[in-house]
Amino acid sequence: MSDKKYLTTASGAPVGDNQNSITAGHRGPTLIQDVHLLEKLAHFNRERVPERVVHAKGAGAHGYFEVTNDVSKYTKAAFLSEVGKKTPMFIRFSTVAGELGSADTVRDPRGFAVKFYTEEGNYDLVGNNTPIFFIRDAIKFPDFIHTQKRNPQTNLKDTNAVWDFWSLSPESLHQITYLHSDRGIPATLRHMNGYGSHTFKWVNKDGEAVWVKYHFISDQGVQGLDPEVADKIAGTNPDYHTEDLFNAIAEGNYPSWTLKVQIMPFEDAKTYRYDPFDVTKVWPHADYPLIEVGRMVLDRNPENYFAEVEQAALSPAHFVPGIEASPDKMLQGRLFAYSDAHRYRIGANHEALPINQAKSPVNNNQRDGQMRFDGNGGSAPNYEPNSFTDTPKETPENKISPFEVSGFADSVSYDSDDHYSQPRALFRDVMNDEERERLIQNFADHMSGVTREGIIERQLENFYKVDPELAEGIAAKLNTEVPAHLKK
Ligand code: NDP
Questions:
Q1: Does residue 182 line the site of ligand 1, with CB under 6 A?
Q2: What is the band of 3 on the pLDDT scale with cuts at 50, 70, 90?
Q3: Distance separating alpha carbons of residues 159 and 332, to the nearest angstrom
Q4: Each residue of 175-195: pLDDT tens digit?
Q5: Domains (ranges, CATH) in the chain?
């Protein structure tokens, strides 16, 4: 064979002609014996894996995380153990509701999903660019996402469904206020913060636990896009954010974020004025100030989009010792749903794909399954307990930190129905006059598409409980009035 790189079939046979299929005679039909042609067409038909039901459109980058402040008194996580320690990481940014080819510059939360390749296995922090979420119990998630997707009859986006659901789910008020603010359409993926959103548990080497919330603060600053400009860009360059991120990194203009945490003493959770596990709430900074942890820098573009971004399987279930789940009901559902989505999309052995593979040893008794392309554990025993000394053993020091629970098994809501005080603080105390005006305009623009009776009134009532000025401002722009009984 030639020393030059030569074209082959998938089984390695040299290909003689990649331009002309084999035909019976010069003008005759194509022969089934052209196995290269058959393989080429058949593989092409199988190029797509199912797109993610949510967060389908994404952009990814590699980088590193460096610890800049000692937090070892709060967590024994090895990758956070000392100042100066660097850990390779990968991030996938995404929109939530659109399909794989949808436009980047839409009003939608952005996924902010970070995979840290630590020496104790992968730690994934699968957050968003908003510190809160629309709902607080995973049981509502499929219904919620149905309203964000397409109408079952028309296959069109359905503004009635969106506002019907939100108006009947007032816990969404905080998130939709954030979403319709200037932050709802980020200028670029580099100009937005990331939040773990949920509360997590950190445990130190003495077994002492605290509750923690993560904030990745953009070193580029937070900047939004004017909605009219965003609409135009969506039409002219739907991949605007993806392109901006790729080009910035390619040009050596590496984006970075400072990771900060809020730490809540374990016992505070019982009496804190907000349920700390309710993902529709933040912890006000005045109660739990931000503590710096480190810096995340993105300095390498993926070499291959499908291999590294489409096949990236991030999951909130990927913990390392020293970081654990909280009882947040939304998080608890996600612990199952994310890995399950990847099993469906890219198979039972997706953790072994290069982008997902831990950089520390992976030893367990999981065997077989589709696309097992490593040694499948070789001749080693595949069960436990066993009497072999050289098989992987449990490490009791890595058991979860125990916590007490009590009460009845029941389907119950969170204790508090205060869906109003935190969006009120955002509207009244954080936003200035111009931001409030733009928020009101953005809400009115979106709600102007609602035609189904009762939805606008119900939502104005919700807004009124946040702040009368918000409800009245939106009502005026919609040429209506807030329901009369509210003013009494
Ligand atoms: P603070 O005044 O201490 O913090 C307000 C925070 O809001 C800022 O630190 C900033 O957080 C964020 N922010 C600033 N401008 C805007 C904006 N235009 N739109 C959205 N967020 C903005 O008050 P509290 O901590 O008591 O929070 C008050 C309200 O601020 C909350 O109810 C919540 O809606 C919002 N908020 C609070 C956060 C928190 O974790 N406490 C985080 C983000 C928003 P950042 O530096 O993270 O951008």
A1: yes
A2: confident
A3: 29
A4: 999 999 999 999 999 999 999
A5: 22-360 (2.40.180.10), 431-487 (1.20.1370)
